[in-house]
């Protein structure tokens, strides 16, 4: 079964702002897919390296970039962790003070 969107019906975003933490292959791909789908009004990408954020902006993978989680996390409706699993404990401690009660937190990590 296939489905096509009616081009005359404006898509309502699922969330206003999604924050992708980690702009590697998986995070960058997810950000690009979210932008293309219109699920989020704004896709924000975060990385420790400003050069990575700048490149993602240049490529049109994200709408906005951030290197400061204290600024980016409180404005996000959804936060997706796309970093190596080993970084999760320190990353979760870093974002915990800034997460709103209604923010959806998820990740793309997998372990075999």
Helix content: 25-40%
Q: Strand portion, in percent? A: 15-25%
Gyration radius from CA atoms, angstroms: 14 Å
pLDDT averaged over residues: 89
Strand order of the largest sheet: 3-2-1-4-5
What is the β-strand count?
Answer: 5
Cα-to-Cα separation, first versus last residue: 33 Å
What structural class do helix, strand and pairing data support?
A: alpha/beta
How would you sum up the global shape?
A: globular
Order of helices and strands: EHEHEHEHE
Detail the poorly predicted runs.
1-6
- Tally the helices: what do you get? 4
- Characterize the main sheet: 5 strands, parallel
Defining traits:
single chain; 112 residues; alpha/beta; 4 helices; 5-stranded parallel sheet
Q: Your description of this structure?
A:
With 112 residues, the protein is α/β, with parallel strands linked by helices. The model is unreliable at 1-6 (pLDDT under 50). It has 4 helices and 5 strands. The termini are far apart. Strands 3-2-1-4-5 form a 5-stranded parallel beta sheet. Helices cover 31% and strands 22% of the residues.
Topology of helices and strands:
Elements: E1 15-21, H1 25-37, E2 40-46, H2 50-59, E3 64-66, H3 69-72, E4 78-81, H4 88-95, E5 104-107
Parallel strand pairs: 1-2, 1-4, 2-3, 4-5
